[in-house]
Amino acid sequence: MMRSAKLACMPSYPLISITVAVLCLAGVRDAAAFDYADALDKAILFFEAQRSGKLPPGQRVTWRADSALSDGSASNVDLVGGYYDAGDNVKFGLPMAFTVTMLSWSVIEFGDTMPRGDDAEDAVRWGADYLLKAATATPGALYVQVADAYQDHRCWERPEDMDTPRSVYKVTPQSPGSDVAGETAAALAAASVVFRSRDPAYSSRLLRAAQEVFGFADRYRGAYSDSLSSVVCPFYCSYSGYQDELLWAAAWLQLASSQDVYMAYIRSNGHTLGAEQDDFTISWDDKRVATKILLSKMFLQKKVDGLNVYKAHADKYICSLVPGASGFQSQYTPGGLLFKESDSNMEYVTSTAFMLVTYAKYLSANGGAASCGSTTVTPSTLVSLAKKQVDYILGANPAGMSYMVGFGARYPRRVHHRGASMPSLRDRPARIGCDQGFRYLRSSEPDQNVLVGAVVGGPDQRDAYSDSRDNYAQAEPSTYTNAPLVGALAFFVAAGAPLHNK
């Protein structure tokens, strides 16, 4: 899967000129590179394997079939569709909304370097359609989860077979959830930008819903972890609180609508919602860093005054990642992988890689750099660091193993994922019951279906990986791991220019 990157530093394709310029600065020109276009296609394909609901005629992951076609019906609402977030069959609203936000951001920034950009937009739309339903099904409420995770986890079932309760959960003025509502607003707003030119009517619907959900999130403040703790914790508790999601949503609404009211909100509330808090992690739970980088774009473009605080704190985040820079405090494995957590560490790696290339793009487009005390960190340094993380995922690591399923010759064969581990309906139409499925979980045999494009949780702090389905901390993939990787890979696809304009 290796090829030499031939990069023209004087491109004839203006839509990718900024990306190419940064890549040239980074010295990528003569370096051996993975087939990023192939990895990108696979990373997007993974989302088709995670689809819930009635699958479309163009479905490419053919071992999947329709599932959960009655979601919401017991409560007289239509909640069919959306994504299963990881290896189980629950639809969690907070990580799903974050997935849609990050997928949308990836398309907004790097869609013009995606050879199969329509597939990426389809992935955004599949999630946005569901969030639109969840936000508009019942006035004054937002549906945030389908299925009880505890009940779901008592079984190992294909999505097509599941018979565990599909209970629905919502936040309301009496049981608020500003975190999940704020993230949903951000996702709908970001998706509205994706479809602004392609489908203006749909874009307008998304934006209106985003504005309404944001108003709900801000007016009825509270964490959904408090309102729905018995069903969302410990799975997706909002450990960072809800303040970061309110500021994040306001930033996306400002970008999507250009309405002064959102910038006024940011200026008036930023200091109480985390604008001056330094945090060095970006995840489905914590959006503080991502918000600072997004708002830095407006500051760097000199479109909005008074946002210098966000640039300053975005720089601090960058400084924390760069070895040798003042403020450096990150941990890397001996093989060079950023290491944050023992459970699903790759979600932090992919989010960080996206932030690095996105911030590098913003800085490069405006002649800027990151300030780390007396040290200046250039965009090329950020790109080089991001490339090392992406290449590690794809196989440039001590194990010589790709942590993207289906990419390269050696990759995880026993993924913690129900549908991948079990025979498909096509191969075994008879139902496989709740307890019957556990033999597939515990089997040492390779997966029955290759979950192409899935990025697993990854190795430990010593670069060690155990290819065992029971090892969910290392072997489980997720949509929110893949979503930011889509953008990072698209950035590096520009190294394979020329590309056609879209």
TrEMBL record:
It catalyses: Endohydrolysis of (1->4)-beta-D-glucosidic linkages in cellulose, lichenin and cereal beta-D-glucans. One of its GO terms (molecular function) is cellulase activity. InterPro entries: 6-hairpin_glycosidase_sf, 6hp_glycosidase-like_sf, Glyco_hydro_9, Glyco_hydro_9_Asp/Glu_AS, Glyco_hydro_9_His_AS. The active site is at 416, 467, 476. Residues 1-33 form the signal peptide. Keywords: Carbohydrate metabolism, Cellulose degradation, Glycosidase, Hydrolase, Polysaccharide degradation, Signal. Residues 36-489 form the Glycoside hydrolase family domain. Pfam families: Glyco_hydro_9. GO terms for biological process: cellulose catabolic process. The keyword Protease does not apply. Its EC number is 3.2.1.4. Belongs to the glycosyl hydrolase 9 (cellulase E) family. This is Endoglucanase. It comes from Brachypodium distachyon.
